[in-house]
Amino acid sequence: MTRILAGIAVVLTTLALVPIALIWRSRATTSALPRWVVVTNMAKQPKLVGQSGSPLFADGRAMRPPVAGTVARGSLSTNPVLETGLEGEAFVDVPPMPVTPQLVKRGQERYDIFCAPCHGLSGYGDGVVARRADRLQEGTWTPPSSLHTDLVRSRPSGQLFNTITNGIRNMPAYGAQVPPADRWAIVTYVRALQRSQHATIADVKPELQEKLR
Asked: Residue 152: how many CA atoms within 13 Å on its side-chain side?
């Protein structure tokens, strides 16, 4: 009888250790399978993922466009010139922030990313995308404008900002990709780029003019 009880005790002890062994194994190893959850605590619930359909809405889309007139948290602007380039109904010609070397440098960085592929690093409309389109000769490409024409140079800075924001002709809008401050930084760099190609001796400091003659 004692041996039987001892055998039962061994079996029960072994069985009691099995859950502990399984827990240790699950914590010490990795698995591609999802974990087993007894109490979900809302960890698993029905939801619609991006780019999926939904019968709940008339257009069949799960992703909903922003409600007209809503403003994202932290995005409320109290400076309409910063957002539009307009003061009243007229384009401004002075950026709504101090023009510093740091701002122009930031504009150069953003210009090289978003503008140079078409307009070129020098602004003459000879970027890699434009050159590639010319070589393809498909007849559907509209060459980008040179930033150094009299027409573009005569436009107010606010109009250049508006063009970057909303696009013009075949140029797409960059308002969604580039924040307003960076758009103004690009405008200041474009002005510096234009100035570099149309500088005169009068633009040089008087004490340095003699060295250039």
From this structure: 22
For residue 61, the cross-strand partners are: 53
Measured between alpha carbons, how far is 199 from 194 in angstroms, rounded to an integer?
9
- Work out the angle at residue 129's Cα, subtended by the Cα atoms of residues 125 and 132, and round it to the nearest 5 degrees: 110
Instruction: Report which DSSP code applies to 20.
Output: H
- 36-68 confidence digits (pLDDT tens): 777 777 777 777 777 888 888 888 888 888 788
Domain positions in the chain: 81-203
Phi, psi of 161 (to 5 degrees): -60, -45
Instruction: Name the H helices within the chain.
Output: 2-28, 80-84, 101-114, 116-119, 128-136, 150-154, 157-166, 180-197, 206-212
Cα separation, 175 vs 183, whole angstroms: 8
Q: Which residues contact 129 (CB under 8 A, 6 or more apart)?
A: 117, 118
CA–chain centroid gap for 146, Å, is 25
Q: What is the pTM of this model?
A: 0.64
* Count of other CB atoms within 10 angstroms of residue 17: 10
CATH 1.10.760.10 fits 81-203, yes or no: yes
